[in-house]
Specification:
The complex is a heterodimer of chains A (551) and B (994). By secondary structure, chain A is mainly alpha-helical. Chain A is built from 21 helices and ten strands. Chain B is mostly beta strands. Chain B has a 22-stranded antiparallel barrel. Chain B has a five-stranded mixed sheet with strand order 11-16-17-14-15. Classes of the chains: A mainly alpha (551), B mainly beta (994). At the A-B interface, helix 1, strand 1, helix 2, helix 6 and helix 21 of A face strand 24, strand 25, strand 27, strand 31 and strand 32 of B. Strand 1 (34-35) of chain A pairs antiparallel with strand 31 of chain B, so a sheet runs across the interface.
């Protein structure tokens, strides 16, 4: 009967076609998305509107082709993804990151571009929606605070773009339809600076659960401090003095402190939604197995059988590990060594599964066994962990503020002031072993690096080249670390921030990035490599963009 | 007797339709014989009928026929038989007397008068002016069909049907005249009895004919959906004669077509005992047991069976066809099978002297199969597992190992499972009103409802996450409605014959989906049947999802066919069509089609050439389209995606759905086709030749766009231009035409040239090349390259030429020069290594009949392409002895050294893919009527038994399992390692007509 009704209805429709036009209606009926016509957000939707200014970072930092590992650590001297018995050549992508021979089309750095601009776009969109009244906010104070937070979020994205690509287009108008034109590094620098300066007074000073995962006033100041710390690299202007008041504001606020355990900021319970055990993490990507998935770096560094050792619910893939010469730099009493890296025998109680990890990876190419090289242990591995980790990634933590201040003091001649801060950071690393070793002096920080730069040969000896002559710390040039200015401070940064995604910037700031050989990376002496190329697809899509020099 | 059986059987059906008109006027009968004009042998099975009425019958084994109760007066009798030209004669029937009329039919290699479906109507083959091919049931591939496409595999030049898997649940890969799109659907439009459907809509046994519109001039009347061609499936219907019951049944067995040669337990034991060390220093581990893992996951002898019963008949103005099909196929892997039940009823009724006719159709179909096991990945695990390992450990638990991506395949079988079911119901009705002979108006309405249900589970002792069980259910449903109003006017005046068609069509489809899963169940006993019992739900580990969307297509169309003295033929059609998926600025489009034909054989200047029976030149030009696959692409939408903590609560982010493109429209394909059809030598040799060029413009592609101003980094837009051009030829030759022995051979050839002409316009600029296809891990590199100005399908990678004594690959630079160790190569040294799309296809089909025996042999091949042999790429490598490997891993590469290198993609593993297959062969025997014993001798009209084999023999140099790999898509020619292997099938079957 239903069919007949349908037929009758359709027949009626058929007859009335030409009369009414009802049967030529092609408007899309949208059931499972919100269309522009019924998009009427209110102040209650503010959280949902703002979230996209933060959520994209989840995919970038600790995700596949993450910025932390592939973008910032693997071009450096701490972490490497060597070929393994189960693969990990992957068309040479990790070798190219290590040797700085990337091609312009690689997602290793292109990922940073894509995600940063999606944050820019999301921030622009919500700013436009609020300012135009599409998403009206009645309360002026709320409106100002929200707009400031969005501008700060956008400024952070631009800081990342400045740091990695330098010459990028600045876009602030969501309604603009023209293809953006490129800005100079100085313009981008100025933009980040003025936007943060404008936002800071209106940002909340709350910490803890209220601003968890978001940018408050102190986080914005820390980002601005980062900008000034690197100003000499970015625009050739020394701005170390500008780092000092910003870091002092953060320290003086008393809102943050160093956690007593080095691994607390990298534990599941660190964030206020998960226990709030850390008072050190200032801004984090709040990863969560259920609500905010995407952190899988642990899968990339742990080895397959560790699944049984740690009772995980997923089998790790088995790639990244520490570069052996970096491990040599640790003081034997520095507990950050064992807190950052998985060392020695790791087996199931029955001894059936596991590995005895050794600090030797013969070379980046070739069939390296899973037990070669120390996997990253810094980020908590917990029972039942799946392919998506609940451990938050700290974008900014208090130790970095202390170390930024120390570096600025060091570079402005206050070695003792710097040493006091570095000592403060070191204390927990030696608390259980030899507390006296925590203390460093200004003179030590001004000294060279203990990193034995040079080619790591298959026999585990650092040489001038494969099959070359062994080098010492004092060899100089591309080899050894003794000639690096503030090299000891650079070492301190490595020990404290290993695998936190800052190493590329540190090596550039200390003049090491293009001037030294490490592991299977040969010295390039080529400054253009300090910037990544603008992804070719971005240039293909926007002819206004000029490729960075040298690419 | 027979009539009585049938009547009883269909009584229920008839009761629904009580309008059985009984005529009481004066009647007579018509009798006569049908013979072959050459041999004068009687022809059995010819359809003898009075056109436009229900009077009809079949000729018997002596060629005789009898029509009774024919109204007295002047009538026309027509005779049709496949393979022969039809016969037609006028005869005067006198009341209570028998009129005699004898027919002598002309054999034709290609039956010129056969009707071919051309969309909203039919045409006689001799009148065709487009590239249209019709294949009727008698010409179908005779072996059990996987789906409708199997029936015409190798029968139609330019239509490529590839069977790339032995999975009974899989469909075949179809492409017509090359590959003409980058991101839209490549599936042809399938019209089943006038209504959109798919290749599985009806059971293969129910299909009477399959007709394919290959070129755009023919398909243009289907407008925005027809860019990939149109396939018409016409089901069997009553066509006169007495009521019949037909039974078709078969049983078949399958074997693996070819078994890969992996190390077995004795090999590994020997290698371990001898202390064999690979160049990289690895040894083999003998675990002390012997397991043939591949055999463990396979059935010893998978069987399939199929039964189809079709009932058809008619009386007065009413006729009916009803069928029931059951098919059950076990796959070569355990937990792999497919079961189908299809029921179909068609009832037609004619009133007021044929002025008003109705036709009601119902098709209902169920398909069920087990699911939940990733069969392809299980095959990989069975291949790489150490053959000296065992299935269970001493405690009876699954034997597991910690190795990377290494799963006990028998454990997969034992701990994963589920059920899949699809249900489909089609209801259609047509009313046709023909007030005068030359004009008819027809209204078709109908609905189709399809639903897929799937439930899967994994038990506590599963290998992936031991100790955590999980289960899920999902449903997908589609509901489509169609309304089609057509009018036709046909007239003849002064040598002109015209047919005019006009119509309106409305079609919409509402799609909905729902899925839910949960984990941590207290017991495995529920399977997927009690999802709420899992503890994962309160812990936030359960997932749920749903979606709903509607698309609408509306078209107005018209067509004029004109035939002047059978010499000049012309067709012009136009469709004005809109689709809701198109952007607001481009909702409606015009799709014209134009065809011209010239039958040279009717011209006086060819009258002297008696060997030419038919010769026709034709040319066609038309425009068709294809719509983007997803809805909403033109709209600005928002959706919730991702979570972020705000004030201590997780809130969902509100993000734009996509880059809206209000300019979005269909891909526009313009095609020009030149064709030639001929029949010569007493209709003994017939064939056709087609040359075409098809240009896909406004091709859909996901362009990289800058963010900002765009919302996302890619945007679906109409920009590209792809060109396919090619030649198709087919020939049919009656090698022997004698009374006892008939042999018809036919062959076809097709070649297609593909070029991506451009991928940019003023707004969108795409990179010169893009890199589709991927090896997967652990090699992680792209396999193909597509560049503007080049074809689809180029393999792109390192060219290996040699091996160092240490076992490292030696490759060249991109010019094939400057040999260097693999480690020194960089991305710029890659080059085009081959192409995965065959240059040409050939098919050669033979149909032989000797007395009661019939033999059909179909052969088919593809030539001039390369295949990336993943089996060798992954398993011909000594570097990881944790995984089992092929025996050929011990062969010296280039005859020089054992390979000591990680898995890499070099063209050493790229092989020529040329093959020639004896695709299938069928040997049948038809019993003489009356020769059957007892009751059967009178009840059975015809009986045939047959033996058939599919995928019988392959001649190829390719070293993999089967060279018939995927040749469509952007990365064709990949013989994946995770691929359900193809099989060989042997069948015994019978056809009975009561």
């Amino acid at each position: 009967m239903k069919t007949y009704k349908l037929s009758a209805a359709l027949l009626a429709c058929g007859i009335s076609i030409f009369a009414t036009g009802a049967c030529t209606d092609l408007d899309e009926v949208v059931y499972d998305q919100i269309t522009e016509s019924n998009f009427n957000p209110t102040e209650d939707d503010l959280g949902s509107l703002m979230a996209p200014a933060y959520t994209p970072w989840g995919g970038l930092f600790m995700g596949w082709y993450g910025m932390v590992d592939v973008g910032e650590e693997e071009p450096g001297d701490v972490l490497v993804s060597p070929e393994r018995v189960n693969g990990w050549y992957d068309g040479g992508v990790y070798v190219r990151q290590h040797q700085h021979t990337w091609d312009n089309n690689s997602w290793t750095f292109g990922h940073i571009w894509d995600v940063a601009f999606s944050v820019v776009n999301a921030a622009n969109r919500v700013i436009y929606q609020i300012e135009s009244g599409v998403a009206p906010i009645e309360n002026e104070a709320t409106k100002t605070r929200t707009l400031s937070e969005l501008r700060a979020a956008r400024a952070y994205a631009y800081w990342l773009l400045l740091d990695n690509f330098r010459n990028v287009p600045i876009v602030t108008d969501f309604t603009a339809e023209d293809l953006p034109s490129q800005s100079t590094g100085q313009e981008v620098f100025n933009f980040v600076e003025t936007e943060l300066q404008a936002a800071i007074p209106n940002l909340p000073t709350e910490v803890g659960v209220a601003m968890y995962g978001r940018i408050n006033q102190y986080v914005a100041k820390a980002i601005l401090a980062r900008l000034y710390l690197n100003a000499e690299v970015y625009v050739g202007t020394r701005r170390y003095n500008d780092v000092l008041p910003l870091t002092q504001d953060i320290i003086g606020s008393g809102k943050y402190s160093l956690d007593s355990e080095y691994r607390t900021p990298f534990s599941v319970a660190a964030g206020p939604l998960d226990g709030g055990e850390s008072n050190e993490v200032m801004w984090a990507v709040p990863y969560d197995e259920i609500y905010n998935r995407g952190s899988n770096f642990h899968m990339k560094t742990l080895k397959p059988e560790l699944r049984w050792v740690f009772n995980m619910n997923a089998q790790p893939w088995g790639g990244s590990a520490a570069q052996p010469p970096f491990i040599w730099t640790y003081d034997e009493d520095d507990t950050r060594l064992g807190d950052s890296w998985l060392i020695g025998p790791q087996f199931t109680p029955d001894g059936q599964f596991g590995y005895d990890f050794v600090n030797h990876i013969p070379k980046i190419r070739g069939k390296n066994e899973f037990n070669m090289g120390y996997p990253v242990w810094k980020y908590e591995i917990y029972e039942g962990e799946t392919g998506s980790s609940s451990v938050d990634y700290p974008i900014v933590r208090y130790a970095e503020v202390l170390m930024m201040r120390a570096e600025a003091l060091l570079r402005t001649g206050d070695g003792a002031g710097a040493a006091a801060l570095v000592t403060q950071v070191r204390q927990r690393a030696f608390a259980d072993t030899d507390p006296s070793k925590a203390t460093v002096t200004g003179a030590e920080l001004m000294g060279g690096s203990s990193y034995l730069y040079g080619w790591y040969d298959e026999d585990g000896v650092v040489k001038t080249a494969a099959g070359g002559t062994p080098v010492t710390n004092e060899t100089g040039g591309a080899y050894g670390g003794a000639d690096i200015q503030y090299g000891r401070f650079l070492d301190e940064l490595a020990w404290e921030f290993a695998v936190e995604g800052h190493r590329r910037g540190q090596l550039i700031r200390f003049g090491v990035y293009t001037t030294k050989t490490w592991y299977n990376h040969e010295v390039t002496n080529d400054d253009h490599l300090k910037l990544y190329p603008i992804p070719q697809w971005a240039i293909d899509a926007n002819q206004n963009l000029q490729q960075n020099p040298g690419y | 007797m027979r009539t009585w059986i049938v009547r009883s059987a269909v009584a229920a059906v008839l009761m629904l339709f009580s309008a059985v008109a009984v005529s009481a006027q004066a009647t007579g009968s018509v009798t006569g014989t049908v013979v072959d004009v050459d041999t004068q042998q009687p022809l059995a099975g010819a359809q003898v009928f009075v056109p436009g009425t229900q009077f009809g019958t079949l000729s018997n084994a002596e060629g005789r026929f009898l029509l009774i109760n024919v109204p007295a007066g002047e009538i026309t009798i027509r005779v049709e038989l496949i393979g022969y030209g039809s016969g037609q004669m006028a005869v005067t029937v006198t009341a209570a007397q028998a009129a005699v009329v004898d027919f002598q039919l002309q054999p034709q290699a290609v039956a010129l008068e056969e009707l071919v479906v051309t969309g909203y109507g039919t045409q006689r083959r001799e009148d065709l002016t487009g590239a249209v091919v019709g294949v009727s049931a008698s010409e179908f591939v005779q072996v059990p069909a996987l789906d409708a496409a199997s029936l015409v595999k190798g029968k139609i030049a330019g239509l490529v049907v590839n069977t790339t898997t032995g999975n009974p649940a899989a469909t075949q890969e179809i492409s017509l005249r090359g590959f003409g799109t980058l991101s839209a659907s490549t599936a042809p439009l399938v019209i089943v009895d006038g209504v959109p459907g798919n290749l599985e809509t009806v059971a293969p046994q129910d299909i009477e004919s399959i007709d394919v519109l290959k070129d755009a001039s023919a398909a243009a009347v289907y407008g925005s959906r027809a860019a990939n061609g149109v396939i018409f499936i016409t089901t069997k219907k009553y066509e006169g004669g007495g009521a019949t019951i037909r039974y078709d049944g078969y049983a078949s067995v399958q074997t693996l077509y070819k078994m890969p040669d992996f190390l077995d337990a004795s090999d590994v034991e020997r290698l371990a005992r001898e202390g064999f060390t690979t160049p990289a220093g690895n040894t083999f581990e003998d675990l002390g047991y012997a397991t043939d893992w591949q055999a463990e996951i396979m059935r010893d002898l998978p069987v399939a069976q199929s039964h189809n019963i079709t009932l058809m008949g008619g009386e007065g103005g009413t006729n009916y066809t009803a069928s029931f099909s059951y098919e059950s196929t076990q796959g070569i892997f355990k937990k792999s099978e497919n079961n189908e039940v299809t029921g179909r009823v068609n009832i037609g009724h004619s009133m007021y002297d044929g002025k008003l006719t109705t036709d009601l159709n119902l098709v209902s179909r169920w398909e069920t199969r087990p699911t939940g096991v990733n069969l392809n990945y299980m095959w990989r695990q069975a291949s790489i597992r150490n053959p000296t390992d065992r299935i269970y450990d001493d405690d009876g638990n699954w034997q597991t190992r910690g190795t990377y991506f290494y799963t006990n395949p028998v454990q997969m079988l034992g701990t994963y499972g589920g059920d899949y079911e699809s249900r489909d119901l089609r209801l259609h009705g047509t009313v046709t009103f023909r007030p005068i002979e030359s004009f008819a108006v027809s209204l078709l309405t109908g609905t189709e409802r399809g639903q897929n249900l799937s439930g899967t589970y994994r038990t506590l002792d599963n290998p992936d996450v031991p100790g955590i069980n999980s289960a899920g259910q999902s449903t997908r449903s589609d509901e489509s409605k169609i309304l089609e109003l057509t009018g036709t006017y046909a007239d003849v005046f002064g040598g002109h014959q015209i047919t005019l068609l006009g119509g309106y069509e409305y079609y919409d489809r509402l799609s909905e989906s729902f899925d839910a899963d949960n984990e941590r169940f207290p017991t495995d006993l529920f399977g997927y049947s009690r999802l709420e019992a899992g503890a994962g739900l309160p812990e936030g580990l359960a997932d749920m999802g749903s979606g709903k969307s509607l698309i609408t297509t509306i078209g107005f169309f018209g067509r004029l066919n004109w035939d002047w003295n059978n010499r000049f033929l012309a067709m012009a059609s136009m469709r004005y069509e809109g689709d809701s998926r198109f952007g607001a600025n481009y909702q409606w489009g015009v799709f014209p089609g134009l065809q011209l034909g010239w039958r040279l054989s009717e011209e006086s200047f060819l009258q002297g050439y008696d060997f030419i029976n038919d010769l026709k030149l034709r040319v066609g030009w038309g425009v068709t389209g294809i719509a983007p696959s997803s809805p909403y692409q033109s709209l600005t939408t928002y959706q919730y995606s991702g979570n972020y903590p705000v004030g201590g609560q997780w809130v969902q982010g509100l993000v734009p759905g996509q880059n809206p493109n209000p300019e979005l429209k269909w891909e526009r394909k313009t095609e020009t086709n030149f064709g030639l059809d001929f029949s010569v030598m007493d209709y003994r040799l017939a064939g056709s030749l087609d040359i075409y060029r098809r240009d896909t413009r406004d091709m859909l592609y996901n362009y990289d766009v800058p963010v900002p101003p765009f919302l996302y980094g890619s945007m679906l837009a109409n920009v590209g231009h792809m060109r396919n051009s090619g030649v198709e030829a087919s020939l049919t030759y009656d090698v022997v035409r004698s009374a006892d022995f008939r042999w018809r051979a036919s062959g076809n050839f097709s070649t297609n040239n593909n070029e991506l002409v451009s991928l940019s316009n003023d707004v969108y600029e795409a990179a010169e090349c893009f890199y589709p296809g991927h090896t997967g891990e652990p090699i992680q590199i792209t396999t193909h390259r597509v560049c503007i100005g080049g074809p689809i399908g180029n393999f792109y990678g390192f060219h290996s030429v040699d091996i160092t004594p240490e076992g490292e690959w030696i490759i060249t630079d991109s010019l094939g020069a400057n040999p260097m160790p693999y480690g020194e190569g960089n991305n710029d040294d890659r080059m085009v290594l081959g192409n995965g799309v065959p240059d040409f296809y050939l098919a050669f089909n033979n149909s032989l009949q000797w007395r009661n025996f019939d033999l059909n042999v179909n052969m088919r091949g593809a030539f001039g392409h390369q295949i990336l042999n993943y089996g060798r790429l992954y398993y011909e490598n000594l570097n990881n002895t944790q995984y089992n490997m092929l025996n050929s891993a011990f062969d010296k590469v280039y005859g020089k050294a054992l390979l000591d290198y990680p898995l890499v993609y070099v063209d050493y593993y790229l092989e020529d893919g040329d093959y020639w297959k004896v695709d299938n062969a069928t040997l049948g025997y038809t019993f003489d009527a009356g020769s059957l014993p007892g009751f059967m001798s009178t009840a059975v009209q015809s009986a045939r038994i047959y033996l058939a084999g599919r995928n019988l023999l392959t001649l190829t140099g390719y070293k993999g399992l089967d060279p018939e790999v995927t040749t469509t898509g952007l990365s064709p020619g990949q013989d994946q390692r995770d691929q359900y292997p193809t099989t060989r099938t042997f069948t015994v079957g019978m056809n009975l007509v009561f």
